[in-house]
Input
Amino acid sequence: MDVKVNDSCIACGACESICGDVFKVEDVAVVDQSAVAANEDCVKEAADACPVGAIEVA
Ligand code: SF4
Output
């Protein structure tokens, strides 16, 4: 699973709250790709919860 945060991110913090092993919010959310495989369920949950649809999962 490949996870990206696009330029729409408004740094709201929701993804980090839901799936903090993968997402860290600095100026924008950044992805720890090495943690994705073990956290796929919460990555999908965070993508659904992102208010601006900035999390792209492929
Ligand atoms: S939930 Fe979406 S908008 Fe909010 S910090 Fe994460 S990627 Fe950015």
User: Anything to note?
Assistant: The pocket of iron/sulfur cluster is lined by residues 5, 9-15, 23, 25, 29, 50-52, 54-55 (CB under 6 Å). The CA atoms of residues 19 and 41 lie 9 Å apart.
